[in-house]
Amino acid sequence: MRIGLVEFLLILAIASLTIGPQVALFVDRWMRRANRANARAARRRAEYAAQMAVERDALLKRFRTASTVFGVCILLALVYALVFRPIDTPPQAYDAPAVRQDTGAAQTALAADHKGTLDLGEYQGVDCIRTQDGLVYAAAYDGAALKKRTSDLVRTDGGHDAAILSVDGELTGFAFDGSGDLWLSILTPGGGSLCRAAHDSWGTAVEQVVTQIDGAPLGAVSAVEAAPDGRIYFAVAASASASAADGLESTLRTELLAHTGTGCVYVYDPAARTVQKVLGGVAGASGLALSRDGSTLFVADLGNRCVWSAAADARDLTAGGKNCQSFVSGLPGYPGALAMDADGTLYIGYRWARSSWLEKNADSTLLRGIALRAGRNLQEKLFSLPADAPCAEAVDTADGSWKRTVSSKGAGGVTALCPVESRLYLGLAGSEKVRSANL
User: Fold this and answer.
1) 99 versus 305: which is more confidently predicted?
2) Does domain 106-438 have CATH number 2.120.10.30?
3) What's the pTM value of the predicted model, to 2 decimals?
4) How many helices (H) and strands (E) in the chain?
């Protein structure tokens, strides 16, 4: 039996009228349930998103609060560290020294060829240079920390060098007396000491001669000179103790910023075994020199940028007071090592360049106190030696005329110097070589 088109359409119409309402009702219920499920899911997602937003906002708020508290704590700690933290050497107000005009002295540059240098091998720096019997002696040290530092006295003839004596600590200076004995100024974390090594016991034993002054430990000894009559002069840079990391340099840098004026020069009489104060009130006694006859003492004053002169047999003088006047002043840098030539020429080495910021704030103990607390890196930027700054000068002690200026060409500050015939040998900060300049 065949179903025609009309019959098929009638069957569809009857089916739709019979089951269509149930199908439509089923679809409607299914769509409603689906919509309700979607709505519930949407509400749950919205509630979850809202909850996450609330939690995120709370977390961000806590983080911002913690960050603010942390930042305030860091700021307070920084303010305390730079302004209120106690320091061993509180700065003192002072009057900045004047600036000297150009002297018109002859200009000399450091030698650049190998003939103008003395290579000391593995050593990292030189604190003192002397000449004796045609040989050059240098106090050189090795090691990064003063606690572990061992200094050697190195002898060289320009081609060969040998360590003839070793000491624990920093050998800041040495001098030969008339009998050939060697006098040493040694600095350790425990304090300074004046020592003697007999010429027949080099490399075996060093005798401590002076370790205290009036019951107090000797401060940062910086230089030593032997007079023709046998007396030994030695300088104490400042009363502040030396840092274990930097030794003498740390003491001098601290005194430069603090300007306590506690540097002194003493004299030791080996015959009487007595110590007497020659000069006090020096703002960093960084160098000594004696006239050839031993009658006049010259003292480098770091902070006042001058060199004091006084009779060697005077006692209990004050820098700038009666019987102690400035021999040269207004120097272009902060003087350190001094050396006297046979013809009466005084050589002055500049450890650092003059800091305009420091002297502009000479009356501000607050700002200089911040620089003291800030540490070595900032301080080095204040006192770096420019490439065009003089590293040494020579002045005639007879008439006060300036004879020569030695330019550094960026070689660094001078820690030691010694004239030998027609050449001036210089030890430079952080250098393993002894440089020279023609005179």
Assistant:
1) 305
2) yes
3) 0.82
4) 5, 28
